[in-house]
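Input.
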Amino acid sequence: MKISKVATGLLIFLMIVSTSLAVFTSYITPESVEAATYTWGSEGATVREIQTKLKQWGYYNGNIDGKYGYNTWMAVRKFQAKNGLKVDGIAGPETLRKIGINVPSGGGGSSGKVYSWGARGETVREIQRRLKNWGYYNGSVDGIYGYGTWSAVKKFQQKNGLKADGVTGAATLQALGIPTGQSQTSWERNLYLLAAAIHGEARGEPYEGKVAVGAVIMNRVRHSSFPNTIAGVIYQPGAFDAVADGQINLTPDDSAFKAARDALNGWDPTGGAIYYWNPATATSSWVWSRPIIKQIGKHVFAK
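Output.
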């Protein structure tokens, strides 16, 4: 009977924790986390000041310890709801100003984007992928910044002499080798567009063939005869069947994203090709005049 009561109590506790975390993550969008200055996992004097002011005004009843945890997050949410601010529990520039904490011009004291608990998207997936490759992370590469990602980031930060708070800001992104600041948005857009082109053009090809299609696009970007952007190359009139028949608009799968990353990072299985085609269907005499380098899957690659 006692064991049954203990088990029931434990089950109720786990349900409460699970519900709390679900509520927490459901209110945090990638945009709000990216623009954040202080969020779950942040530590320091400014967090202490946030806690002090919120405690004075009756929003916070926890310890003034300078650690931004669940209680601080809840207090910030209450303050935001009372003051007509976006209710996300994140102390960004607007919330800090409303609290009466000075915010440097141009943002809230941190440069570029910040990724923390609750963030989602392709950049989070890239963070997870790199940390997994290096042995810090053993969870799913799902693009969701949860406890496993947060813990892995902390381990990486500790190992690399960074502030170990589990929050991926500019310094941690730089150490991971992921572009920061304004270039991050461009990098994400290029990654998605390249993956979409690969998915549309090389779906069903061997993995090396997918990377090869991405490499051809990257080679064209660097070639004087083509547009100098990924979007310009892909959407150049008549360049790719996937654009003409609409397959560019299909959602890329994980293999396409992985191939796009490899192509962006410099892998070129083609040896410098700027053209490719399927020899079973190509009828242009001009394209057959190009010097063929190699064949991968159903495509031949040429200069």
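Confidence is low (pLDDT under 50) at residues 14-36, 105-111.
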